[in-house]
């Protein structure tokens, strides 16, 4: 049985992690390993960036504070946890 398209994030690159579906938020791929997080009105809230660490892959969440400034929210081992920062 397949998962309905409305409950899965769609990405084209193989091996790209799936972001959770969070009501009212959109995760738009900007480039490999970088997603823009916006609310349903299109306002950019921040970014999630994937990076390789010695222990595995991590995900950094950054919130937009001003047009050119961001605030680090944390680095997480699971992309779901990074996405949760924007609830």
Task: Describe it.
The protein has 87 residues and is mainly beta. It has a domain at 25-84. Helix content is 7%, strand content 45%. Strands 1-2-3-4-5 form a 5-stranded antiparallel β-sheet. The longest helix has 6 residues, at 79-84. The chain is globular. Mean pLDDT is 82; it is low at 1-12. It comes from Cryobacterium cryoconiti. This is DNA mismatch repair protein.
Strands, helices and their partners?
Blueprint lengths: L24 E7 L2 E6 L4 E10 L2 E9 L5 E7 L2 H6 L3
Antiparallel strand pairs: 1-2, 2-3, 3-4, 4-5
Which features characterize this protein?
87 residues; mainly beta; five-stranded antiparallel beta sheet; globular; DNA mismatch repair protein
Which structural class do the helices and strands define?
mainly beta
Strand content: 35-45%
- Approximate shape: globular
Number of helices: 1
Q: Helix amount, in percent? A: under 10%
Compressed to H and E, one letter per element, the order equals: EEEEEH
Low-pLDDT runs: 1-12
Spatial gap, N to C terminus: 29 Å
Instruction: Provide the spatial order of strands within the biggest beta sheet.
Output: 1-2-3-4-5
Describe the largest sheet. 5 strands, antiparallel
Number of strands: 5
Summed over residues and divided by their number, the pLDDT gives a mean of 82
Protein name: DNA mismatch repair protein
Task: Please summarize what this structure is.
It comes from Cryobacterium cryoconiti. By secondary structure, this protein is mainly beta.
